[in-house]
Amino acid sequence: MTEARKEGIRTLLKGIETGDPTSVEVIHPDKYIQHNPQTHTGREGLAALFSRLSKSAPHVNLVRMWSDGDFVFAHTEYDFSTRRIGFEVFRFEGDHTVEHWDNIQPRQGPNPSGHSMVDGPTVVTDLSETEANRSLVRAFVDEVLIGRQLDRLTAFMAGEGFTQHNPDLEDGRDAVRAALERTDDGEPVVVYTRLHRVLAEGNFVLAVSEGSRRGVHSALYDLFRVADGKLVEHWDTIEAVAPKSEWKHDNGKF
Length: 254
Description:
Layout: H1 2-18, E1 33-34, H2 43-54, E2 59-68, E3 71-79, E4 83-93, E5 96-106, H3 130-146, H4 153-156, E6 163-164, H5 173-181, E7 183-184, E8 187-188, E9 190-201, E10 204-213, E11 216-227, E12 230-240
Parallel strand pairs: 1-5, 6-12
Antiparallel strand pairs: 2-3, 3-4, 4-5, 7-8, 9-10, 10-11, 11-12
C-alpha cells in the first residue's frame, strides 16, 4: 500500500504538468481537507487548478519522497513562471488522500557554501532508527528552536560536518547559531513558537513548525538528515501565512 500511495501522489503532482483530470483520483471525493489557504478544497477545484497551470508548460521535480504511517510527504521543485521549492504532506485513509498541507517559497541560492535548496542525498537508510531520529528532531525543535537554548546545539548537531541548504547560510553549526541569534530592531529575525508535526522515515525527518520571520506570521518546514545520532544536513522552506481575508476556506495553514 505504501508504494501505491507514493505513486498516487507522484501522479497527482505531475498532473500540474499534464493537466490530466484523472491525476486527482487519489484524492477522496468527499473527505479531502485542504490546508493551503489559497487553494479551494475538494478534488474538483484542484483539477481545475492543474488544468489552468498546465497551459503555462510548468515543470515538477519530485526530489525526495517518504512515507510515515498514514502520511506521504515529498520535497519538490516547481518551475512555473518562477522557480519554487516546496514540501508537500498528504494524509491517507485507505487508498485515498484525505488531507493536504504544503509550504512553498521562491528558489534562491546557491548559498555561501555552494549548495542549492534541493541537492544532496536522496536515498532513505537506517529504517530501524526512524523513531530515534524522530525523537532527536522533536527535542531539537522544542529545546533549541522554540526554547532558544542555543548552548544545546552541540548536543544535537554535527559541527563542521553539518551541510546547510538554506540559501542564506553556510555550512557548519556556528552559522546556525548566528542565524538564531540574529536580531532586527532588538527582536529575533526568526522565531519558532509551535511544533505541529514531525514526520520521519529512516535518516530523514521533517519538522512542521509555526512562528514568524521579521514579525510576519510564517510556516517553517525543516528537513534534516540524521547520521549516528546527530543532525548532519538541513533543507527548509519558510512561507508567510496569507491573511485570513485571502483564505478560500477555514481549514487553516496547519
